[in-house]
Amino acid sequence: MTIEIKKESAALVVKVTGRMDAVTAPEYEKKVNELIAEGETNVVVDFEQLEYISSAGLRALLATAKRIKGKSGNILLANIKGGVKEVFDISGFGTIFPMHDSVASALSALVG
Amino acid sequence: MIKIEHLSKRFGNLEVLKDVTVEIKTGEVISIIGPSGTGKSTFLRCINLLDRPSGGSIRIDGVDILDPKSDVPKVRQKMNMVFQSFNLFFHLSVMDNLTIGPIKLLGMSKQDAEHKSMDLLKLVGLAEKADSYPDELSGGQKQRVAIARCMAMDPKIILFDEPTSALDPTMVSEVLSVIRRLAKDGMTMAIVTHEMDFARDVSNRVFYMDEGIIYEEGTPEQIFDNPQKEKTKTFINRIRSFCYHITSPDYDLYAMNAEIETFCEKQILPVKTRQNLILLVEEMLQICNPLLSTILLDIALAYSEKKEILEVVFEYTGEAVNLLDKNLLPDELGLTIIQSVTESIDYSRLDNKNRLTMILKRV
């Protein structure tokens, strides 16, 4: 998995590429926790290039979401599709996280 | 022809063959099947003394080849072996690969040896490759040359050690058809193989090896259609199978995934099935993870083409416990995902091991 971070005015966009599994999910969690510790309160995770997610990835997302909520922040997910979306739907995570069709839509939701 | 009694073989503390007693008669074609690591290849290697047995006796036409007084090279000339990796002499032409044995060991004249070799090359369909070198041949052609080379020594029996395992799927049939032809001509053969349709088709008898013994033997119909013993049944049900052993929490997820992908490709399974399978296995491993330093976990995949069923079996040591018992799980996330990609999940306890058998949903 690779993680790219881009600063937008409304939030930090974290683009994840590849696989979010038992091996890589801790990397994601560590990185996003660092960003939260640095004071970021709004994060959009872009799943456009994510090919695979397992419960390990979902748990990492949940852990970071809880942490950001504790700081009155928001974590929004964008571009969830295909097999990754199925895992969200199966697990019920689709209803836990606000999901957006695009990063732009997630960003405007934060502004709006 | 070959009478083997109480054959055993140890490598240090590892007892690979425990007590093999069996007889192979002239003209029989024996297929030796069974899971990896159960001593099939060692059994063949012991028969022609590539590995020295630790105990027991092997009589070939009445001569005990383990008797220090017996003329082993002479007895050994009665049998020859075809290996998974061909073992051709790469610096010799195809013709020279075939003639070197008869000239040097049987004292045959070059002319006679070449004449005979050409007949054998015709038999395996490679007469036109007589002057080629092994590097110029495909895997299937190399193995056919190896079979012809075996025949050049006029063996009474040929031992085949997984002759098609190193071949591309496209080349398997050309090698199997040569072996079928030898069977038709009455050649005595013992064949370790994972090609079950071939084993069923070509053999007079099938040996199922497990736990270092010939666990069950019978006609192909008995072994493949009506196996009597538990492990044979399990194996036959998992004929198109793959097995991965996990012995520590530091297992390599990606190496395992790559092997699962390869298995799925061989079975020509849809991409979605592969994805669901990899997800299922990872979820199960996550659930097992806290225990992986204390238990051994085997993951077996078996695809039945006829039934179009992909079965996934997780077999683990330790006390009797169903790791998917809701009451034992910290949360149901992994279980929910596993349930969503499977048609059925069954827990059983067998041979002091726990077994979770799952059937993947069709996509």
Structural write-up:
- The complex is a heterodimer of chains A (112) and B (363).
- Chain A has five helices and five strands.
- By secondary structure, chain A is α/β, with parallel strands linked by helices.
- Chain A has a single domain, classed as Transcription Regulator spoIIAA (2-Layer Sandwich).
- A five-stranded mixed sheet of chain A has the order 1-2-3-4-5.
- Chain A is globular.
- The model of chain A has no long low-confidence stretch (mean pLDDT 93).
- Chain B is of the alpha/beta class.
- Helix content of chain B is 36%, strand content 27%.
- In chain B, the strands form three sheets. A six-stranded mixed sheet of chain B has the order 6-7-8-3-9-10, with helices on both faces.
- In chain B, β4 and β5 form a beta hairpin.
- In chain B, α3 (94-106) packs parallel to α5 (139-152) and α11 (271-288) runs antiparallel to α12 (333-341).
- Chain B is globular and about 75 Å long.
- The model of chain B has no long low-confidence stretch (mean pLDDT 90).
- Classes of the chains: A alpha/beta (112), B alpha/beta (363).
- The A-B interface holds A 21-23, 52, 54-56, 58-59, 83, 87, 90-92 and B 253-254, 272, 275, 278-279, 282-283, 285-286, 289, 333-334, 336-337, 340.
CATH class descriptor name of chain A: Alpha Beta
What portion of residues of chain A is helical? 40-55%
Side-by-side strand order of the widest sheet of chain A: 1-2-3-4-5
Q: Name the chain pair with the biggest interface and residue counts per chain.
A: A-B, 14 and 16 residues
Please identify the structural class of chain A as seen in this structure: alpha/beta
Instruction: Return the string of H and E elements of chain A.
Output: EEHEHEHHEH
Query: How confident is the prediction overall: mean pLDDT of chain A?
Result: 93
- Profile the largest sheet of chain B: 6 strands, mixed
Rg from Cα of chain A: 13 Å
Compute the number of strand runs of chain A: 5
Q: Summarize the main sheet of chain A.
A: 5 strands, mixed
Q: Supply the helix-strand structural class of chain B.
A: alpha/beta
How widely separated are the two ends of chain B? 52 Å
Using the alpha-carbon principal axes, give the shape of chain A: globular
> In percent, how much strand structure appears in the residues of chain A?
25-35%
